[in-house]
Amino acid sequence: MNANQTRKKVTIALFVATFLAAIEGTIVSTAMPSITGELQGIQQYSWIISIYLLATVITTPIYGKLSDLYGRKRMFIIGALIFLAGSMLSGVAQTMNQLIWFRALQGLGAGALTTIPYTIIGDLYPFEKRAKVQGWMSSIWGIAGISGPLLGGLLVDYISWRAIFYMNLPFGIVAIYLLSTSLRETLEKKKKHIDYPGIITFAIAMFSFLYAMTLLRDGGEGSGTAWTIGLLLLLAALFFTLFARIEIRSPEPIIPFQLFRNRMISMANLDSFLLCVINVVVIFYLPLWIQGVYGKPATYSGLAMIPLSIAWPLGSILAGNWISRKGLRYIGVAGACILLASSIGFAFMTASTSIALFIIYTFMAGLSFGLSLTSLTVAVSSSVGWELRGSAVASNNFIRTLGQTIGITAFGLLLHTGQADSIEPTVLAGSLHTIFIWVAVLSIIVVVVSLGLPKLEQVEQQQRNAS
Question: What is the pTM (predicted TM-score) of this model?
Answer without folding.
Answer: 0.78
